[in-house]
Design goal:
- The chain has 209 residues and is α+β, with helices and mostly antiparallel strands.
- It is built from six helices and 13 strands.
- The protein has helices at residues 56-62, 99-102, 141-144, 158-161, 179-187, 205-208; strands at residues 9-14, 20-26, 34-38, 44-46, 49-53, 67-73, 77-82, 94-95, 112-118, 121-126, 132-137, 148-152, 171-172.
- The longest helix has 9 residues, at 179-187.
- It starts with 8 loop residues before the first strand and ends with a helix.
Length: 209
């Protein structure tokens, strides 16, 4: 279980162009959902779950070598999205759909683009900037009995990612992962030499190309 705060707190995130934004309201520890099953140590599973995902489908869809997810009940998440083609004197008009409404929205009405990547699975992106945002598996409700959503961990704002305990604490689909990527994530080294990769400061990329 992630060592996140036991008190209630909020996280914020969204796409790169801010057309789609969200707030996650995590309740106090005693009010957090207990999930079916146990972890490898036999402990109860409790929302939120934060993990690395090495499955080939998530790698291909996101374009990331390894994906990371923040999984929680859908009713913890409040969305704010730009409503296309509706003028506003204060800039772009926005609305606040539920997660269910968001994954059923049409691109002509909102910047949200939905992709049915597998049976009962919807992945949502921003159609303006391309940010990969969420994954919803409808079949999961059959076991958890609560609508759940997986939010792309990297879509959280930097301030939220720096909060205590907001980091992956396990790997899923480990056997499906790319060997050198798994070594890089687990040990910080892709060469197997144990020396680690060079670490360049911000803004140095153009100097080395």
């Amino acid at each position: 279980m992630s060592s996140i705060p036991e008190d209630a707190f909020t996280l914020h995130g969204g796409c790169d162009c801010s057309a789609i934004q969200y707030t996650i309201s995590i309740p106090i520890l005693s009010s957090r959902l207990i999930l079916p099953g146990k972890d490898l140590s036999g402990a109860e599973l409790q929302s939120p779950q934060i993990f690395f995902d090495h499955c080939n489908k998530c790698r291909k869809v996101s374009g990331a070598l390894v994906q990371a997810w923040f999984t929680c009940p859908q009713d913890w998440v409040e969305w704010s999205i730009v409503t296309e083609n509706i003028p506003s004197s204060n800039g772009e008009a926005r609305r606040t759909p539920t997660t269910k409404d968001l994954v059923q929205s049409k691109p002509s009405a909102t910047p949200v683009v939905n992709y049915a990547s597998s049976p009962e699975v919807t992945r949502s992106f921003c159609g303006r900037c391309g940010t990969n945002l969420l994954y919803v598996f409808e079949g999961r409700e059959k076991t958890s009995h609560v609508p759940m959503v997986d939010l792309v961990l990297g879509s959280l704002d930097a301030e939220s990612l720096e909060m205590e305990g907001v980091r992956p604490d396990r790997h899923f689909y480990w056997e499906s992962g790319i060997s050198w990527v798994k070594n890089l994530v687990a040990k910080g080294d892709s060469s197997l030499s144990g020396t680690g990769l060079p670490r360049h400061p911000d803004g140095s990329r153009l100097e080395v190309l």
